[in-house]
# Entry
Amino acid sequence: MNFQRVFFLVIAFAVLLAGSTSIFYGCKNFSGPTETTTTTNTTTTTPVVTQPVTTSSVICFSSQVLPLLQSNCGMSGCHDALSRRDGYDFSTYQTSVSRGVVAGNADRSAIYTVTASTSRERMPPSPYNALTDAQRAILRQWITEGAKNTNCSPTACDTSSVTYSRTIVPILQTYCVGCHSTASPGGGINLSTYVGIKTVATNGKLLGSIARQSGFIAMPPAGSLGTCETNQFRIWIRNGALNN
# Structure
């Protein structure tokens, strides 16, 4: 009797132990990625918690990013649809994000990091002008927001206080200066200085080109300026094309 009682007690203890072990391991079996941390004596595994990313896109690819890339990088012989140097083509959204873009991470995106480089790898390369801080900020924010193909609705057009510094220069830097700078005066036109801009504003070439008037070469070639921007140029020129 004593032997049988001991035998059954041993069996019951073994069953209880097995059940406890199963429950213990079952509680650690969570889904999702894990991160392993190793110390001198132990190794522990903890879940990686991925926080949801909330984005509020204010950067418009079609009107802010694409013109910037085309003007400063997509010139003929560089990264346009025909040349595709090093495999980069900034003629469309699909080709622009196909190489050198890590959506959500600008610091791992080559098309952003090369703009900040101080070495010979900087893009645009010397003697072309480097992107301005404002332009780089636009590019960085667009990538951080997911490098989306955003096509924004037109915003209210301010034609009440058109000035050279606040209105005209930013538009030219985005759409024109890459091809019409001191280092690359396409067609002999330099739009990176006030003197150069005033010259073509006075002789009618600037408005004629951006308004795509008959007898003028349409500019920018990859896509026209909006009605708002064209009207802003018209107002500025009508008011004397002042350096204000």
Q: What stands out?
A: The beta strands are 34-38, 43-47. DSSP finds nine helices and two strands in the chain. Residues 61-144 form one domain.
